[in-house]
Records
---
Amino acid sequence: MQQRLDSSCLHLSHQVTAVTLCEKSVEVEALVNEIPTKWHAARLLLALPPRLAAESTRFHPALPPEVSRAWLNTPTWMAPHAKYLAVFDEPFWRTDGLAGAAQSAVGPMVEVQDASSPGGHAALFGFIGVPAQARAGIDHKDMLSGCRTQLGRLFGERAARPVAKTLLDWAQEPFTASAQDQVVSGHGTAPVASVLRSAWEDRVFGAASEWSPEFPGYIAGAVDAAYRAVDALGTAWRVKG
């Protein structure tokens, strides 16, 4: 998808801090390596979770209070979670007659699944059961060690020696989770993705997974929300230019 875009129109590592509605455009303020910059666009698609969009972006004029409240009250489903992934040369557990799936109450992971790719690497992944606030006080190396030990107990000593491993804690990702997302809260109800009855009507559209009314929080939700946002943008463009 990136290769199909004009590289001069693709600006990475821009942290948007504020958006201002002008007469014929939306002014976007951003930081690039802490250096402020500004861009102008006809309309704006928000690919952040609603809560983060409301918390981290200043809107001028301000969003309607009911819209801001709805966005702030929408939990980012996976934000408080963490996931461990271990890569192996082969899915040896299958040869041993094991499915690569487990539920466990001993060790950091509460659920383990076979994450091997057809024709690709063999892998196991696990969701960390330690709450986000408790994880913040555990050394990263200790968590990795605990996961390896747990896999070895569940699937044999080879499972404790992956050729590669990684631990992603979404609660520590500033563009995924906010302070409100440190507690597991489940799926929320998708807020309205377009700002109606305000100066921002037909100018800003939510395009992240949590804005999907059917699959909030899932990858399918991200695709669904993006399609809906692009359709809404296209309609606004045809009607108002």
Note: The domain at 82-172 is CATH 3.90.660.10 (Polyamine Oxidase; Chain A, domain 2).
---
Amino acid sequence: MSQNAQLVPVSVEGQVLPGGMSLHARLAEIDKAAQEHVNKNRPKNTVRSFNGDWKVWQQFCVAAEVPELTYSPGLLVLFVEWLDQVFEAPYNTLQRRVTGVVYKLREAGIAVPHGGAALARQTIKDIIKRNAEAGNPNRGTGQAPAVTIKQLKAISRECPDTLAGLRDRALVLIAFGIGGRRSEVASLLVTDIVESEQGLEVTVRFGKTGGRTVAVPRGTSALTCPARAWRAWVEASGVTEGPAFRRVDRHGRLLGGLSAQAAGDVVTRAGERAGVEARLTGHSMRAGMATEARKAGHDQVTIADQGGWVRNSAALLGYLRRVDQWSDNALSGIGL
């Protein structure tokens, strides 16, 4: 092809394939099959999140007095502003809600063009800027407070020696050890946690970056040793298969497995019981593992592999910068 040659778009309208089907119809068929393949292989957690986004969208549509199967760029902008004002939703939640709603609209056959959410995403940027200019730059960041080793010890110490308390201690320490998302912790099976002389080998069967097997060494303190906490829970509960962590009723009876939300609630209640001032969430264990490991001098790759982050993860870099801003500060050692 000469340097002056130009690529000319070719219309598929009116073109007919050898079998008699129009090229336009054949491409539509391929697109539909491809979408079905993507939907079938989409992670279950993502599907659950999108379903949750749709429920919030339905609430918005009632408030806005529009049918839920409706799309316009302006309507998505109004949705973002509504989320910000009514729920004070974190910025990452705003982004995810928009993605989930667009996905569900397309799934329902509503034509949302490529780039159809551009105005809504620009609105999120405007909200971030607006909050920063108003002197509230952290509104909407939604970052979970990172648990510290000192707090972890207090949490473990205050877990009662009841069945629920032993579960709480084991769950919190293993969640910290693997840097686990609450969904990853809730989905663990008994057979995913293998004891060895060195500690625990924990297999996370799925996650945002796929599965991983994580080595969790024995702790130097009996109070915060994940392996000892796991052994105590197993012996007390008698669990040998199925969900690693179970619900326990007020009579101390063992029930079914925990949901992701319930696993996060265990962490929150454990933090409150120990008098931790910050309101911990399921993600606090993950953030805490990253920051405490960084304080101990571990590199980004090691931390990323432990917690299942991609190695250039912006979220992980944010955790590491919390530590690095003091340990490697440009003003350190200059005689200021």
Note: Residues 149-323 form a domain with the hpI Integrase; Chain A fold (CATH 1.10.443.10).
---
Amino acid sequence: MRPESLEFLKRLLDAPGPSSAESRPARLWRAEAERFADRVTADVGGNSLASLDGAGGGEQGGQGVPRLMFAGHIDEIGVMISYIDEHGFCHFEPIGGWDTQVFVGQRVLLLGRTGLIPGVIGKRAIHLMEEEDRKKVSRARDLWIDVGATTRDEALALGLRIGDAGVLASMVQEFANGRIVSRSLDNRIGAFVVLEALRLLAADRPQAQVTAVATTQEEIAWQTGGGARTTAVALDAQVAIVVDVTHATDYPGMDKNRHGDIRLGSGPVLSRGSAISPVVFDLLVEAAEAEGIPYTLQAAPKHTGTDADSIYTANRGVATGLVSVPQRYMHSPSEMLDLADLERAARLLAAFARRLTRETDLVPR
């Protein structure tokens, strides 16, 4: 990976941005996009858009190549303050799908009015529990965030209030064999990959008009579409590639008969089935094989669990594909993936975009 791209990726991953509070990473994303995109904008939903003008136009009715949207959501799971008690302890609710056992003893960063406020998630010490309580799974309602305040007024004076969001205070680390660990790989790396693909296309422009979008609220609203659906409608996209993460199955205890054989470093994962256009899927496979990019197939018989599910049915229908990056330890403070898979995914998206022409027939025949 380019050193400059890796440095940008680290800054993007470390920027706190849970669902509905994505402004910090979104500002970084737009600033990077302005280095090479023709237009960079944001909308009322917090989505960030970076566009390249294509040589073939984007009109409907067969007069131009299809308008292409690359979508990767930029939010992450987090927590939200639901109550501040008289002693200054902040009670909270999860944002997104947490395994609540992960919360115990974690440090947090809260997005207060005056900036980032550190805290720690508290729980009654095991020494003070009855034997039966020690066996119980921790629930968010039994935990709290301690910011060092001794009264509610002190907590408020720090800049906290009900509804403030936060994230676990886990920062990026590089591991052996090109692996990287972060709390926000799901799915800030989707936003990173679509922008890297646009960077590649800026140096060798396709016929199509391409817009990369860092979408919002996927972790809490993927079933209704969140920012991905509204952006697809606003762009009147005719083709969309969604970039997300998927579960790697290359660690102990995974049942490959149920979940497939998906490994870090094996390249992007291409979904087939629900919400996936067979035309787009075939073009992705053709592009991968032509470029020598390794890939894995994944079945999606009911739904993909990504923004593809909502984009596919937007407007009069959008020919949608899903490119996923293998990831271990999803929805934890220490998600892991292989940097080589990010590069391959970006190259695949760029190669796909260059295959779209005026003659591309998006109707399955």
Note: The longest strand covers residues 239-247.
